[in-house]
Design goal:
CATH class: Mainly Alpha
Order of helices and strands: HHHHHHHHHH
Shape: elongated
Number of strands: 0
Helix content: over 70%
Structural class: mainly alpha
Number of helices: 10
Radius of gyration: 22 Å
Number of domains: 1
CATH topology: MetI-like fold
Oligomer: single chain
Low-confidence stretches: none
Distance between the termini: 31 Å
Mean pLDDT: 88
CATH superfamily: MetI-like
Length: about 250
């Protein structure tokens, strides 16, 4: 983590000195009133980015789990339901789905939908297809004998999944879950196009006011870098905490 931040800092210094562009870092200088106000304005976007990403991830995991179950069926028609959903959703660009949900869903269903919940719904749907594949792979990685042992104890299908299979599968899928959360954090920047005041939206608004895009977008890069590195470290800690013993 320190190496990555140091690398980015050195790159910024190098680029600053190797161009005729006159950098105006004063716009983000916290020692001045203007710079401190701008920094606070940008940092305040963390709450929207994190909340949208977390909520979308939770809904995507819930939807993805139930979408993954048909893929485990012996019936080819039931498995087909899974394939149709997964392949259809994965084929739609996230930005297109986001715009369709924001503009199309209220029209078709005659409902009021603000930009926050439109972002959550679109990201949840887009991510659910990937989560379904993650859950399917994790569940199928559990040895068949675990299912048979649970059935021999008289456990129902749902109790078998909840008490026996899913806790073991969760350990298997922690790394891809972390990867997908990082992915959804980055994709959350797209909600800025529908007006949600996240990190990216705030950076765009500040660029319009200050006319210093390189400085502001460099700060935006560092914001996402810190956020995603923190998430990555958290996921690695969880992997170590819940690692499957080798013995």
């Amino acid at each position: 983590m320190k190496f990555n931040l140091l690398t980015v800092s050195l790159c910024c210094v190098f680029l600053t000195g190797c161009s005729d562009y006159e950098w105006g870092w004063y716009v983000l200088d916290p020692s001045t009133e203007q710079g401190l106000t701008n920094v606070k304005f940008l940092v305040d976007g963390f709450s929207a980015t994190i909340s949208v990403s977390l909520l979308s991830m939770c809904f995507a995991m819930l939807i993805g789990f139930f979408i993954a179950l048909p893929a485990l069926s012996a019936n080819p028609y039931i498995r087909g339901v899974n394939r149709v959903y997964v392949e259809s959703i994965r084929s739609i660009p996230v930005l297109v789905l986001l715009l369709w949900v924001y503009y199309g869903l209220p029209t078709l269903m005659d409902i009021s939908l603000d930009h926050y919940w439109a972002g959550v719904i679109a990201l949840s749907i887009a991510e659910s297809a990937f989560m379904a594949e993650v859950f399917r792979g994790g569940i199928q990685a559990i040895h068949r004998g675990q299912h048979e042992a649970a059935h021999s104890l008289g456990l129902s299908y749902w109790k078998t999944m909840r008490l026996v299979i899913f806790p073991q599968a969760l350990r298997q899928i922690l790394p891809p879950l972390g990867n997908q959360f990082v992915y959804i954090l980055k994709m959350s920047s797209l909600v800025s196009v529908i007006g949600l005041s996240d990190l990216t939206r705030r950076a765009n608004e500040l660029v319009v006011n200050e006319y210093l895009p390189l400085e502001i977008y460099t700060f935006l890069v560092l914001e996402y870098l810190v956020l995603i590195l923190a998430v990555s470290q958290g996921v690695r800690w969880l992997e170590r905490r819940y690692a499957i013993p080798n013995h």
